[in-house]
Design brief:
The chain is an alpha+beta fold and 213 residues long. It contains six helices and nine strands.
């Protein structure tokens, strides 16, 4: 009796442990929603498109440049090297740059310079005036603010137009946006969080496929 019991424990215990941790990954391996479907509430008066149209079915990194494109250029190169180049080949990924209309020439030059080192096809630009930029930013309901329409923080928006981030960050507590001035934040936080969100959608896709079968 003892031998079968021991063998049973040796076989079943590792299986139970595996299922426990596997279920934990499935349950906790998701990037928290901080502001649910915020884009559905916004209509932009200075644009022909509603914000919801721009974010729908895309994993978006949202960046506010306002009238400070030149000032933010160096930080955007950090972001480009550490985040954009790692993920731009995913067809559902995009980076949306929000800038004032008077910054079109500066944006064009920025994309030319970025285009010398990477494929810029996943960079999209939305030109908004001061009021609309502020309204879009306010809809995030983050703890950040704009200066001349710009922010060093970039935001992860999911395919449903919801803001994603961290609710238990070791430094910020609730982490709404990622500081592109910090290589450490890009490497140690934002890269991981984009990976988590991509994995979440891949798992959902696999589940939907399995359910159909």
């Amino acid at each position: 009796m003892k031998k079968p019991l021991v063998l049973g424990i040796l076989f079943i215990l590792p299986l139970v442990i595996y299922l426990f941790f596997a279920s934990g990954v499935n349950r906790f391996g998701r990037l928290p929603i901080l502001t649910d479907s915020f884009t559905t509430e916004i209509v932009l008066s200075s644009s022909e498109k509603e914000a919801n149209d721009l974010f729908q079915n895309k994993i978006t990194v949202l960046s506010f440049l306002g009238e400070e494109v030149e000032l933010m250029k160096g930080y955007l190169f950090n972001f480009n090297q550490k985040i954009y180049k790692r993920f731009f080949e995913f067809k559902d990924f995009q980076t949306l740059l929000v800038a004032y209309p008077n910054q079109k020439e500066a944006i064009d030059q920025l994309l030319i310079e970025l285009g010398q080192i990477t494929d810029v096809s996943r960079y999209k630009v939305l030109y908004l005036d001061e009021l609309d930029s502020a309204n879009l930013f306010k809809a995030l309901r983050s703890d950040g603010n704009l200066s001349s329409g710009s922010s060093p923080l970039v935001y992860i928006v999911d395919k449903n137009g919801s803001l994603r981030g961290r609710i238990d960050d070791e430094d910020e507590g609730v982490l709404y946006g990622y500081d592109i001035r910090s290589v450490a934040v890009l490497n140690n936080k934002m890269e991981d969080d984009v990976k988590v969100l991509l994995a979440e959608y891949r798992l959902a896709l696999k589940k939907n496929y399995a359910d159909r079968k």
